[in-house]
TrEMBL record:
Name of the protein described by the UniProt record: Nudix hydrolase 3
Transmembrane segments: none
GO cellular component labels: cytoplasm
GO MF term set: dipeptidyl-peptidase activity; metal ion binding
Alphabetical list of PROSITE patterns matching this protein: NUDIX (PS51462)
Entry annotated with the keyword Hydrolase: yes
InterPro entries: NUDIX_hydrolase-like_dom_sf, NUDIX_hydrolase_dom, Peptidase_M49
Keyword Chloroplast: no
Pfam families listed in its UniProt record: NUDIX, Peptidase_M49
Organism: Nelumbo nucifera (Sacred lotus)
Keywords noted in UniProt: Hydrolase, Metal-binding
Length: 781
């Protein structure tokens, strides 16, 4: 980093890496031993298995003349990690690389004292890996002489050995400690056993039972059949948006894996499992990566470095981190919560509402500046690319995903012109407009009022992917044929929401006096797209917009053919293994499906818009942030079970449902927990199981099976319902965290059940094959 006339300022951190709000000059920070941040960037040549090292200039105040990291530098006060990494690489080595070349691999805390105690370095280093196909020619580098005197490539094995021996020519790193992760990652990544990896992927794939949806189109008019083709095409566009929402290089990875899927059996397995997860992170394995950057796409940058005759340019792997980013692609990858909150605090009240809203992303000015000047020779220097005081800004979905949304809007408009159903026509026109205006209110109302044999849900809805705050919505699409008979049978539940609200196990002060009846539609699914990765939903309750929930309530859609498949392939086998023999007869589809209906109904009751102790109006989602999804799923589940018993007591449901609903719920606990505790439904279900087990409502027997104690279950269900509803009503994030930390965990009884199910390979979920949709599109080619 070039010496500036004015001494560089650093953000001073705590010993655990959080910002203190204090900024100090660089010299004072190293004199006083203050904790601060920096970046390390390693360039790795895949073909030669070599790391690039730089020789530090003799004028450096630390480790002069020694061989060190490819590129490194401090993060100046107010700067971000990834921007600094990109800038340092350009300044020191003359390489201008895009953000998808940088793989964040770990944070390294370096604590040392050198120069006779005059230089104290307490530094949190964000470590990045740039993977190139082959070594970059020496002539292509432009070295910054005040920082770097030379560069060289060296085998990572040899380099590790030199560090282990503490060779005096190399800056020391403890390879048996934190920094050993770099070498462990490279070794594991490139010592791949193809056969072993194929077996692992095959086992992962077997957790999903394929189901073939050959849905009948009986009852559709010819006009609606024509519209259906356009709606499926629009849903495929929604898929493209979702891939981009997960991670910025995800679409590139998808295309690369698809192109290569026929090269080998392993490539085919990679593609098959990727299609289920829609990312390189496995939904059923706590989002652990099943691919690495070494599996990713190769990209060519002809102008990233000094041009060399005969060299076509730098080829690199489009990177993704091993740990799934909590903010997905909704926020800058190096943004933390504190930065967002500090920025938000400087916004007006109206702007704050937008910043925490569903339908936008957060980006950096400095990132845009670098991307717009990233060709070799024009990539801005530290002085040329200023980081604004407030670097973050808001981009609406209608702008961020404009090419996709314009296309989807056109398809919906054409479908709306074709259909002869008035309410469907209204919905499609309204949603087509919303895609371009970014205002979804009217189209959400139109969706709630949809009365059509051809049923569609399409747009941005759920916030599960945003585990940083739970603010941002992902795009999804569900297309189905309404099951008129089943729809008429479930009307009872939606019509009695106000009665449920008034009788909730919750203090009256928190209850809503007006809850609208919730329309319920039962459909046979034809096609889904977008945020439908991993475990498949059996129902949904929308919209999530608190304004509409407050004014109009919600509407529910039940996917009956998916529910039937899950019961047959998953819940029945689970009951056969985990439920005590004399209670297995109580597990039936009616109870499973009826509880699913109540679960969705209960999303529409209880606290949503709330008043905080200081009198300020807020929402449960805003107050609980990243904890909201798991607690809301637990609420809908457990209050749904309470609601079933309430309906029985009111004479609205038969008494013979009581035992079957509780035993079916017990079996369902094991089904949902297998989704993983990083997933909202799985974590919420673990909370419920462990609470009920602690209260004696669920009992473990000597043979490893479980049963329901019918004398204790009602009290346990009501007490947990009250606990969760009260936390939501108060917007008490501390209590929510405490509850989830205590109960939303993998306990020994749960682990026992999980191991039994894994041993006999009961599927965890289903993977739909859309036969009808494929046939329709094939006929229209």
């Amino acid at each position: 980093m070039a010496e500036a006339h004015e001494e560089e300022l650093f953000d001073v951190l705590t010993k655990t890496g959080e910002k203190t709000g204090i900024r100090k000059p660089r010299g004072d920070v190293h004199r006083d031993g203050d904790y601060h941040r920096a970046v390390h960037v390693w360039i790795f040549s895949e073909s030669t298995q070599e790391l690039l090292l730089q020789c530090r200039a003799d004028c450096k105040d630390s480790w002069p003349g020694l061989w060190d990291i490819s590129s490194a530098g401090h993060i100046s006060a107010g700067d971000s990690s990834l921007i600094t990494a990109r800038r340092e690489l350009h300044e020191e080595l003359g390489l201008a690389l895009p953000m998808d070349a940088f793989e964040f691999i770990f944070v390294f805390l370096q604590e040392c004292v050198i120069n006779d105690g005059k230089f104290v370095n307490n530094e949190f280093n964000d470590v990045y890996l740039v993977t190139t196909l082959s070594p970059i020619p020496m002539e292509a580098f432009t070295l910054q002489d005040t920082e770097v005197s030379a560069v060289k490539y060296i085998s990572w094995v040899e380099y590790k050995s030199l560090l282990t021996k503490e060779d005096p020519e190399y800056v020391p790193y403890d390879v048996s400690g934190q920094y050993g992760q770099l070498f462990d990652i490279i070794e594991k990544r490139y010592k791949e056993n193809t056969e072993a990896r194929s077996l692992i992927l095959q086992k992962q794939l077997r957790r999903y039972a394929p189901i073939y949806l050959d849905t009948e189109l009986n009852g559709l008019t010819e006009a609606d059949k024509e519209a259906l083709v356009l709606l499926i095409k629009a849903a495929k566009v929604i898929d493209d948006i979702f891939y981009l929402q997960v991670w910025y290089s995800n679409p590139t990875l998808r295309d690369w894996l698809k192109q290569r899927c026929d090269i080998s059996d392993l490539d085919k397995l990679k593609w098959m499992y990727y299609v289920i997860n829609k990312s390189p992170w496995s939904c059923l394995d706590e989002n652990k990566a099943f691919l690495t950057t070494a599996d990713s796409a190769i990209r060519l940058l002809p102008e990233s470095a000094k041009p060399i005759p005969g060299w076509k340019g730098l080829e690199y792997r489009a990177a993704f981190p091993m740990q799934k980013p909590p903010g997905a692609n909704f926020y800058p990858p190096d943004m933390d919560k504190m930065e967002f909150e500090l920025w938000k605090s400087n916004l007006s009240e109206e702007q704050q509402e937008v910043a925490t809203g569903f339908f936008n992303v957060i980006r950096r000015h400095s990132e845009s500046n670098l991307d717009s000047s990233s060709l070799y020779g024009t990539f801005g220097s530290t002085n040329q690319v200023k980081v604004p005081i407030h670097d973050l800004f808001i981009v609406p979905f209608s702008h961020e995903y404009k090419p996709f949304l314009v296309k989807a809007s056109e398809l919906l408009t054409k479908a709306g012109d074709i259909t002869d159903c008035a309410s469907l026509k209204r919905l499609l026109k309204a949603r087509a407009d919303a895609f371009l205006s970014n205002d979804y209110y009217e189209s959400d109302i139109a969706w709630m009022e949809l009365d059509s044999k051809l049923d569609i849900t399409i747009g941005p809805y759920e916030t599960y992917e945003d585990t940083l705050f739970g603010y941002k919505a992902t795009f999804e699409a569900f297309i189905g044929i309404r099951d008129d008979k089943a729809t008429s049978q479930v009307k009872l539940f939606g019509d009695h929401l106000q009665m449920l609200e008034q009788n909730l196990p919750l203090d009256d002060i928190y209850k809503s006096k007006e809850v609208a009846a919730a329309p319920i539609r039962v459909i046979q699914l034809v096609y889904n797209a977008g945020d439908v990765k991993g475990p498949q939903t059996v129902a949904f309750n929308l919209p999530n917009d608190e304004r509409i929930v407050k004014d109009r309530g919600t509407s529910m859609v039940m996917l009956k053919n998916i529910s039937e498949a899950k019961f047959k392939h998953i819940l029945q086998p689970i009951a056969g293994v985990c439920v005590i023999e004399e209670q297995r007869k109580h597990v039936n589809f009616e109870s499973f499906f009826t509880h699913t209906i109540c679960h969705e109904c209960c999303h529409g009751i209880g606290p949503h818009t709330i008043v905080l102790p200081n009198g300020q109006e807020s929402t449960v989602r805003l107050e609980l942030q990243e904890l909201h999804s798991a607690l809301e799923e637990a609420k809908a589940d457990i209050v749904g079970l309470w609601a079933l018993k309430f309906f029985v007591n009111q004479g609205l449901l038969p008494k013979n449902l009581i035992k079957s609903m509780h035993v079916s719920f017990l079996a369902g606990c094991f089904r949902s927990i297998r989704f993983g505790l990083e997933e909202a439904h799985g974590k919420g279900q673990a909370l419920q199981f462990n609470w009920l087990f602690e209260k004696g409502a669920f009992v473990l027997h000597f043979d490893g099976t479980f049963s329901v104690d019918f004398s204790k279950v009602d009290g346990a269900v009501e007490s947990l319902s009250r606990e969760i509803l009260t936390i939501q009503a108060k917007g008490d994030k501390t209590a929510a965290r405490s509850l989830l930390q205590k109960y939303g965990i993998m306990t020994k009884p749960l682990q026992l059940a999980m191991e039994k199910l894994e041993k006999i390979e009961v599927p965890v979920d289903v993977a739909p094959v859309f036969c009808t949709a494929d046939k329709i599109l094939e006929e229209k080619r």
